[in-house]
Amino acid sequence: MEKVRMLSTLGLMGAMRSLSSAFETASGIQVDADFAPTLAVLKRLRAGEAADLVILTREGLDEVIGEGRVIADSAADLARSYVGLAVLKGAPHPDIANETALRKALLAARSVAYSRLGASGVYFAQLIVRMGIAAEINAKATIVEQGFTAERLVSGEADLAVQQISELKQVEGIEVIGPVPHELQTPAVFSAGRMVNAKQAEGAEALLRYLASPEVVPVLRQSGLEP
What we know:
Elements: E1 3-9, H1 13-27, E2 30-36, H2 38-46, E3 53-57, H3 58-66, E4 76-81, E5 83-88, H4 99-108, E6 112-115, H5 119-130, H6 134-139, E7 142-144, H7 151-154, E8 160-164, H8 165-168, E9 174-179, E10 188-194, H9 201-211, H10 217-222
Parallel strand pairs: 1-2, 1-3, 6-7, 6-8
Antiparallel strand pairs: 3-10, 4-10, 5-8, 5-9
GO biological process, one term: molybdate ion transport
GO molecular function, one term: molybdate ion binding
Protein name: ABC transporter substrate-binding protein
């Protein structure tokens, strides 16, 4: 069976679980997928790691297109993703409907878990600076090097977790409160592209077409992404 090697940002991990098997059944092409934060994927690509297809934030994909690693004409925007907050299952949901409420909720938290390498963590670090509460939040923050911030809710290290909603939803035993107010964020756009040196160019093209097709929209929505 032909195998397509895909390197993807963590944001698509939930959706890809079911999409990979549907694609395999329909096409007979296997998907060998590896997931990591955007910055980690970029680092691996720059270190020469081989792949047929990559899914990154639009900015990340544009960088590797500029470096001549990804074919510009192959780029396709797949989904939009908002940063949200989560609590442990059964815990009260603080109000985060506007900036004032969000500031209050963040300051009241014992510890806020956010990611160092993910797009959501970079955004959140800038947001708390803009809100003037960076020193207070970082003094008690649980910084996650790599992986899912909501796992720190389950372990009891933090009582609020910040990450892309699609990433928060990967963790059992937590509840997503909702997105950071939309006026405070620009959604991340996840985009796919075919590697210049793809070994399985045709398989990568087929997978790309499938991921950009309307039939995957319900799965993307269910995993916390907007098409």
